[in-house]
């Protein structure tokens, strides 16, 4: 069994073990794979694992030995799952491995914005506190989260974890969700998008990226419906927001801050207006990448492959297309 990992560095730069995979077959691991090398590297592979390397229809139909594609992430839009199904190739993902990590990053951004942690830490490295005439100082307001309203767009696994944390902080929680009221905790109020935007002090995006539906869900029109001075958080997918419209909203004060762990282009352009904005707080797509979450990812990836080899595949995302 030949197993090829196309871009292993992002999930395992050397601080984890691939042993769970290595006991299953002959494993070849590449840190990164350019598109021009993908077909060559999987030419004799039975199993391919990918994080961000695209597995297109052309590649799938040009790889006769290929039997299994494992995505080293929850989202699987990097694989043409229809083409894989036509060839009888199972495609699997890694669900719910990073829920706590992403929820934690969501609140790291929220707390940084409202408690000004980075602001004061940076100033005090240069001696600002040491020059203070008083035992403490503040030069800009900071706020309690208690009694604020958070609007959560998408109340799935991560969204619901964020909602629970918000509730523990004493926040009011409103959500845009397809779930029925009796499927939600008592502290969550299900509301339409317009009401959520109008009421929320913080809007946090946790919905999937769906072409024609949620791409640029937050655009100029939606930003105008938000409470003036609200904060927008995006730890979902970069294209959920129109980045130019967000930058405009920061310029005008319609948004007081934007925090994100994702962008439309990753990495962003060096001259990205939004990435360089003084009221934007952007981390480099690392919410998922705590060592605990990455360890779960690598372990589950190996278990997915083992289950497939044993004839009892799990986490198959294109099973319905193969029927």
What does the model show?
The protein is of the alpha/beta class and 323 residues long. The chain has helices at 19-22, 35-41, 57-61, 81-86, 99-115, 117-125, 157-168, 193-199, 220-225, 243-252, 291-309; strands at 2-5, 26-29, 47-50, 68-71, 90-92, 149-153, 172-176, 188-190, 202-205, 230-234, 255-260, 280-282. The longest helix has 19 residues, at 291-309.
Strand order within the widest sheet? Answer: 8-7-6-9-10-11-12
Percent range for β-strand residues: 15-25%
Secondary-structure element string: EHEHEHEHEHHEHEEHEHEHEEH
Radius of gyration: 22 Å
Based on helices, strands and strand pairing, what is the structural class? alpha/beta
Mean pLDDT: 97
Detail the poorly predicted runs.
none
What distance separates the N and C termini? Answer: 26 Å
Helix-strand layout with pairing:
Layout: E1 2-5, H1 19-22, E2 26-29, H2 35-41, E3 47-50, H3 57-61, E4 68-71, H4 81-86, E5 90-92, H5 99-115, H6 117-125, E6 149-153, H7 157-168, E7 172-176, E8 188-190, H8 193-199, E9 202-205, H9 220-225, E10 230-234, H10 243-252, E11 255-260, E12 280-282, H11 291-309
Parallel strand pairs: 1-2, 1-3, 3-4, 4-5, 6-7, 6-9, 7-8, 9-10, 10-11, 11-12
